[in-house]
Specification:
7 helices, alpha+beta, transmembrane, membrane, transmembrane helix, single chain, Nuclear Transport Factor 2, Chain: A, 4-stranded antiparallel sheet
């Protein structure tokens, strides 16, 4: 959804850029040459118009896509932090990012008596390569769906924890992981 909005804004800015180029061209062609004289400006103007339009469109689209990717990246900060903490084996830090529902789910999945034991078991089950991937790679967030104080992050990059969707809940001053699948 966000990517579509960004693309539409990019197209609008590109069209606006070509209209600006048209106005510049119109102002330059106000003085008509004498009949029979070649007008260098009339031959260059269409090329200039096209070049300016392309440059403005590409610049606007690039800026918008960069801004959208930054927005989506910022939405996934808690996911990145959780991956890094699990990859490092920091059970206390990882559990601090989970709400009660997520802690219970992790404890059931890992058959552990506490959240910290569950993270320790999860960390131990990973290969060194998987741990490195969790610590060093940034998961790609493709979309964010918000509903009240919950938001669901769509993770499109492969990750050792096989998380495709993560639900994050806003607890006022911070976000906590609520669920994943």
């Amino acid at each position: 959804m966000i990517a579509a909005i960004c693309l539409v804004v990019g197209v609008v800015l590109g069209v606006a850029g070509t209209r600006i180029a048209d106005r510049v061209r119109a102002r330059r062609l106000v003085d008509d040459p004498e009949p029979g004289e070649p007008d260098e400006r009339r031959r260059i103007a269409p090329v200039l118009k096209g070049a300016v339009g392309v440059v403005l469109f590409v610049g606007a689209l690039g800026g918008i896509l960069y801004g959208c990717s930054e927005y989506l990246g910022n939405q996934g900060k808690i996911l990145k932090a959780y991956f890094r903490l699990v990859g490092r084996g920091d059970a206390i830090g990882a559990c601090a990012l989970l709400d009660g529902n997520a802690r219970t789910k992790l404890m059931l999945l890992e058959r552990a008596a506490s959240c910290e034991d569950a993270v320790t078991t999860l960390h131990a089950s990973l290969t060194p390569e998987q741990r490195d991937k969790l610590v060093n790679d940034d998961p790609f967030i493709n979309g964010v769906e918000t509903a009240g104080d919950h938001k669901e992050l769509e993770v499109t990059s492969a990750n050792p924890l096989n998380i495709a969707y993560m639900t994050v809940i806003d607890q006022g001053d911070r976000e906590l992981i609520h669920d994943w699948r």
